[in-house]
User: Fold these one by one.
Assistant:
Number 1:
Amino acid sequence: MRRWPAEWEKHDATWIAWPHHEPDWPGKLAPISWVYAEIARVLHQHERVEILCHDASVRDNAERHLKAHGVTANVRLHVVPNDRVWLRDSSPVWVQNGGKLELVNWRFNAWAKYDNYERDAKVGQAVEKITKVKRSEPMRPDGQGRVVLEGGAIETDGAGTMLTTEECLLSQVQERNPGLDREGYEQLFREWLGIRETIWLGGGCVGDDTHGHVDDIARFVAPGVIVLAFEDDPADENHERSADNLRRLQLAGGDAGALKIVKLPFPRPVIMNGERLPASYANFYIANRTVIVPTFNDRNDRIALNTLAALMPDRDVIGVHAVDLVWGLGTLHCLTQQQPAG
């Protein structure tokens, strides 16, 4: 039976893709490479960092920035053509199956928003070739082709419970798997990820380009412990959404309080060119002995970092400046994909 490990379980590596697509950060691509080098600097101290580079010039750029940050070991660069860098969504999910690792490779369609995703759709094949790990492609229960899904849409505790959102998978505004209902998804999650219980939250956060990915709003940090991005201000668009998600989690926890729910604040709205961006502390990434957390030059940065440090005392909790990064409509969890220990 397959099991999808929790993010806090031991990793062999973290996978990222080096930034190169300027339209993702209009006018800000240059500083993004420095942010990536800083992410690699933190992670490579605790686990190997595997970096996909679009072409040789991108690889050379990555090498220069990594060297400047003192990252000269425990990192590997691979020339793999890609459209965007959000490996949480375009990369396969690593699961355990019969004592071995397996790549579960959903079909990627760029969140049903962009036309240029052909190279991202082949990232799974490249990861399979590099790692020599078997790759499987889940098919829809109704036989209507491969399942479209992204890693940012799902979150697990590693013990058979999963979080996702209705906005992402069930709403009419998305075009991932038309006709696939709640029961169909849960059947897929049982078969391919070993999920026994799926907790359906409502909507994601304001500004999310992915139609409500769960990794911007709710995350497991330990068995039975969930952090929920919660907006206290009733005038903010995120307030009603987060209040609804809190009610859903409280109901899922049952009268016995099987779930511990800890609130994370949102930063003040981050606006760029009149557009509200999906700035959320919940988009952190848990690595071996460390957690990297997006920060936004906001007074709530300290509250978020302290909250997560108290919940994960065995790890160093490190803030990474993400005001420029979130201009690309994603931050730290969106750009990483963990490879569990084999």
Note: The domain at 2-340 is CATH 3.75.10.10 (L-arginine/glycine Amidinotransferase; Chain A).
Number 2:
Amino acid sequence: MARLFSRFPNVRTGLRRGGGVYLVLAVVVFGIIGFLLFRQHSSGPREAAAGPPSGDTQPAGNVGEPTPRLAAETEAHGDLLASLTSNTESAAVPTPPEPTAVTELPVPAPNPGNAQVDAAIAEVMALMRSRPSEVIEARDRLNKLLPMPMTPPQRQTIQSEMAKLANDWLFGPAAFPGDTLCDTYTVKSGDLLEIIGRRHKVPYETLMKINNIPRPQLLQAGRAIKVFKGPFHAKVCRSTFTLDLYLQDTYVRTFKVGLGKSGYETPTGLWRVRENGKLIKPTWTDPDSGRVYKANDPDYPLGSRWIALDGVSGAAKDRTGFAIHGTKDPEQIGTAGSRGCIRMYNGDAILLYNLLFPLYSQVEVFD
């Protein structure tokens, strides 16, 4: 301050003359000069702290690794600039990754058959509740559903209902009006049950049973009897060990069966009932041991009936020695334990024996 007054003597004199006014003016002037000098001094470091030109880009490498130019500036300006640079880089918003293409999984096509089957079953059930006598219409409507694609429970429901209906339209004593599979026949003089059965392609034994005729000789002329319009057929599924019985193309009932064991599998394909091949407890020779079994042997293995089959097509073509028969081992039904024959419970074998007609009745075996 003394140096300033020596350089500007007039100021000092003015202060003495003007008193406090000049003192205030002097302070203001000195303040302005000091502010200008401070601003000029501080502008250099602020420019030096500026980042690299926009043309300098950071090369690929580890994130946070400084470029050579940035390293030099960090050295010049000390730890503070390095800290700021580090904080700036760590706070940078990461570039979002490219969206991954979403692979759309195929949506299973709806199975209209299932819904249609459910609706049709419900309609038939409603029909039976409202009009119980419409057995034939209910049977035919359910039978038309069986070739459609459906779930196993749906198929089981249809077959179960049709088996119940068969107790009336097939195994009952009377033929229903409008039934194309069963009819009423008036016995003529000289008619024989065997001839009537052959004419309709069904065994006469089933006509005796359904019409409650104890012996064929007791058939009376003028009597109306129920007859079936055959033939009956069977379809055997190896994977489910089942035999489905049909009258012509109409489902009747399902039976559990036993089939050939490994190495003796029941051949697939089409078979037919052999002429003169239906026998009651025939003498049988075991091909493995050579032992001959007779009907009265306590361990006779063939059960109550034997229905011989001839191979027609597929793997069954020209095969012989196979049959549908009963068994002395009912626990093997539903398993693969035979030498290729189709085993049934003895009561089921008798029923099938009374329905399949030689040369006309076919047995299809499939997987």
Note: The first strand starts at residue 182 and ends at 186.
